[in-house]
Amino acid sequence: MPYVTGEEPKAAVSGTQSSPPGSGLLARALRSDIWYSFRRSPITVVSAAVTLFLILAAVFAPWVAPHNPFDPASLDIMNSLLPPRWMADGQTGFLLGTDDQGRDVLSTILYGMRISLAVGFASVILAMLLGVTLGLIAGYVGGVTDTAIMRIADVQLTFPAILTALLIDGVARALAGPQAYEEIVLFVLVLSIGLSFWVQYARTVRGSVLVEANKEYVLAARLIGLRSSAIMFRHVLPNVLGPVLVIATINLALAIITEATLSFLGVGVPPTQPSLGTLIRIGNDYLFSGEWWITIFPGITLAILALAVNLLGDWLRDALNPKLR
Known about the structure:
It is a single chain. 66% of the residues lie in helices and 0% in strands. The protein has 14 helices and no strands. The chain has helices at residues 25-30, 33-39, 42-59, 61-64, 105-141, 143-157, 161-176, 178-183, 185-212, 216-223, 228-236, 241-264, 276-284, 293-319. The longest helix is centred in the middle third of the chain and has 37 residues, at 105-141.
């Protein structure tokens, strides 16, 4: 029967329909509560900008640094212990002065941040993978497995993270020997810091899994015969990632500070490839002799980086908390 009004119904129109404007992923993100909370917090915006600036400066250090502090051919011992440019004896080519080996302090800070950030990100990823996996297993399996994992976590919580990192670093140093240790020092730092921070992820994820395991979607997945591993990682894990992201952001600052502490104590990266902690330790020997810039500027950079990341973590914790929306 022909249509009376002469208009075809929408179902009869063939072809694909264009999506409504503003329905893309970016548009939904800009309309989200998290973006609204972000742009309404000036402190968070400034923290994000500072963090992004420091990360980009570290990543592009070979292109933005005035000198290459790791190239012995470009170093001149006659340029050692020069003050910053604005001081009386400062030189134009060294904005923040030089250290005891004639290396430009600004360049060593940029290159040092690369090591600090690389160790921080890698150790956080290691701690997150280990902690989330063990937390999922403990919360979902339960029983003896849950008890064993949580007792190990409780024992590790009785020791400060820096002591755990020092213990692992000392064992690796004794097993590898002095020469081999310098070749694997970055991997040892990542391993020692990562194994120091997994407990927080495991305990948080376990608590969330205990809540999620009794919900209908998990019971339905069990009913249709899905394997436990598929239920844990495909269905339960996405629903417990919110607290994990918050912990990872805050732990990034802690990991950077822990690496700087280990390097300051002399068990981190060698002076030939200094991180921020190594630079602070080197400058500390000259602090009271007048060459304050060697340790002050790396210390300020480390403090600004840790503070900016911590402020981002605090905002993310509040933004992902539904009770505070």
